[in-house]
Amino acid sequence: MTRRSNADDAQSEPAEGDGRFAYDGLDRVIHEKARLGILTSLSAHPEGLLFNDLKQLCALTDGNLNRHLAVLVESGLIEVWKSASTQPRTQTLYRRTALGQQRFLEYVNVLEQVVRDAAAARDAANQAAARVRLGWSGN
Length: 139
Prior knowledge:
Number of strands: 3
Structural class: mainly alpha
CATH topology: Arc Repressor Mutant, subunit A
Number of domains: 1
Order of helices and strands: HHEHHEEH
Shape: elongated
Strand content: 5-15%
Radius of gyration: 21 Å
Number of helices: 5
CATH class: Mainly Alpha
CATH superfamily: Winged helix-like DNA-binding domain superfamily/Winged helix DNA-binding domain
Strand order of the largest sheet: 1-3-2
């Protein structure tokens, strides 16, 4: 059974051997650290961000930012707007698309499930360790 990324997913827990921790909703396009940072920045600024603002927020070089933006544009997750100015340099604005908004929210839902699963595993391990300690004597 594969993991779905919608809200109903938390309701139907697959058995341990059924790919319980496969997290198919962790989209490889979004999951890369720089692209996750870019999409998160654009989520916080729905009106869009200029190239230099994204560069500063995500702590990326021009070349790195350009490459990651190209992947996100090719995937249809963000759109590019160029200013029609007569200045020597045009301004470039980046915004999330409707598809980008949807896929980012789906991704975040799956990531939240990862955190819940990790917390549940930690709690179960702590409970098991406490039971083992109760059965042993320090002598």
